[in-house]
Design a protein that fits this description.
Strand order of the largest sheet of chain A: 1-9-8-3-4
Shape of chain B: globular
Distance between the termini of chain A: 36 Å
Number of helices of chain A: 0
Oligomer: heterodimer
Shape of chain A: globular
Largest interface: A-B, 22 and 24 residues
Structural class of chain A: mainly beta
Helix content of chain A: under 10%
Largest sheet of chain A: 5 strands, mixed
Largest sheet of chain B: 7 strands, mixed
Chain lengths: ~110, ~110
């Protein structure tokens, strides 16, 4: 079962920051927070991941709260091409087998509007 | 293009027929995964390979499903005696190691009539 809770949908104006929240209150110490997105009719695409510290890459920033029970994915300047379903996933990196695999929930459908 | 490729992209079949899908992972990736995704849901794990060894199968993978990766490169997923409930997107992903990020292919959309 997915260990995360995300809002089912969000809207964002083009050019504005999109802030996608995720709750993972039962996360354990060795579980990472991963974000993937899935644009319509494509396979999921990796965005970013983190353990404790905030992370930033060319696509997005990930802010993890100090207690690690929630996180926010930030797309700093959303474009129409960022319209997609965004999945927040917690993943145990210390186990092999399916425990190390990705367990997807339903994600947040982000609609970027002109 | 050096990403993960899947063929065919779409497959329409009649109930009871057998279908086979192919996945070509990124060449240096030794881990290959199959997922299934139904409408409105996130992808669900089916099985994975490390090189040619199939190391785990989800309980979603009934005995009508079989997956192979004979030389540790491409993989095939076969569904025998298809049922309407098998209609879904079948996604393949690969990664270099267990911990590395996964790269997904575009998927094969199966419709069983």
């Amino acid at each position: 079962d997915a260990k995360t809770t995300q809002p089912p949908s969000m809207d964002c104006a083009e050019g504005r920051a999109a802030n996608l929240p995720c709750n993972h209150s039962t996360i354990s110490g060795n579980e990472y927070v991963y974000w993937y997105r899935q644009i319509h009719s494509q396979g999921p695409q990796y965005i970013i991941h983190g353990l404790k510290n905030n992370e930033t890459n060319e696509m997005a920033s990930l802010i993890i709260t100090e207690d690690r029970k929630s996180s926010t994915l930030i797309l700093p300047h959303a474009t129409l091409r960022d319209t997609a379903v965004y999945y927040c996933i917690v993943r145990n990196m210390n186990y092999g087998g399916s425990q190390g695999n990705l367990i997807f929930g339903k994600g947040t459908k982000l609609s970027v509007k002109p | 293009d050096t990403g993960v490729s899947q063929n065919p992209r779409h497959k329409i079949t009649k109930r009871g027929q057998n279908v086979t899908f192919r996945c070509d992972p990124i060449s240096e990736h030794n881990r290959l995964y199959w997922y299934r995704q139904t409408l409105g849901q996130g992808p669900e794990f089916l099985t994975y390979f490390q090189n040619e060894a199939q190391l785990e199968k989800s309980r979603l993978l009934s005995d009508r499903f079989s997956a192979e990766r004979p030389k540790g490169s491409f993989s095939t997923l076969e569904i025998q005696r298809t049922e309407q409930g098998d209609s879904a997107m079948y996604l393949c992903a690969s990664s270099q190691t267990q911990r590395a990020r996964k790269f997904f292919g575009p998927g094969t959309r199966l419709t069983v009539l």
